[in-house]
Amino acid sequence: MDSQQFRTPMVVCAGSPRRFSLVSTVAEATDFLIDHRAKNDCAQWTDAMNQCAGAEIGTNSVASAGSAFVLALRAAGIQIDTTVLLY
Fold first, then answer.
1. How many angstroms separate the CA atoms of 42 and 11, rounded?
2. CA distance 73 to 78
3. pLDDT tens sequence for the chain (87 residues)
4. Is 80 exposed, middle or buried, given 0-12, 13-18 or 19+ CB atoms closer than 10 A?
5. Which has fewest Cβ within 10 Å: 14, 43, 68, 86?
6. d(CA 54, CA 48)
């Protein structure tokens, strides 16, 4: 299934040294969650992974996956900017 776009792309600041990632699809959010799970394994992180997986197969909405992704990042103390405008 094609990746589904979030309504607003998100810039995520994580890693050492500081690295920025642009996350604009459910697939990109899933990849980010998987890549950073070892250091951020918590209930919100697991929920976000489940929400994104469900959105990929159509059982969850893209909006719920995006919300869960943001909650997981905030719970892990990862900076996120959801005000990015792409032209």
1. 21
2. 5
3. 456 999 888 999 987 677 889 999 999 999 999 999 998 889 999 999 999 999 999 999 999 999 999 999 999 999 998 776 654
4. middle
5. 86
6. 10
Give me 26's structure tokens. 């459910």
Length of the chain: 87
The counts of H helices and E strands in the chain are 3, 3
The full set of domain ranges for the chain reads 5-81
Query: Half-sphere exposure of 22 toward its Cβ, with a 13 Å CA cutoff?
Result: 8
